Predict the structure.
Amino acid sequence: MNKLKLEEYDYIKGNTALSPKRKQTEFDWEKYEQLKKAKKQRNIRINEKRKKIRSGVGQVITLVFALGFATIMRDSQVYKIQNSIADLDNKINSVVAENEALNVEILKASSLSSIKNNAENGLGMTTPKKENVIKIDLSENNFSLNENNLNKDMKNGLFENIKDALW
């Protein structure tokens, strides 16, 4: 008899209708349960990895958002400070220009020719001549207090002053 490759069926030349020899294999339930558990564990591990990846991506997104927000806030503060500096520079420049204009006016007003012209034309002053000069001797006490009036006021009291004012 010629034997061929044996797999699930034994192949025999000739008529085998009366006695086929089939291999019967029993279903292995334990192996099936192990495969089922392994598949379940693999799915759980895959889901856990996906959750970790999602949480990591969420953390990265949150971090990027926070850093972006902080950067924008800081840039806005810098922009406000730059605007205030520019405003102060403009104010300083205007004050400097105003001071220069005032200095020019002071120089014009303080010149002797300007003062003389203003005094003669605006105020009607004239230059003094020798006949207009008056001399006063300041060595004497021209402004002494009248002691009689002072003693009189001291003698009169408050009551006397009120009485004099009413009658």
Q: What stands out?
A: The two ends are 174 Å apart (CA to CA). DSSP finds four helices and no strands in the chain. The mean pLDDT is 82.
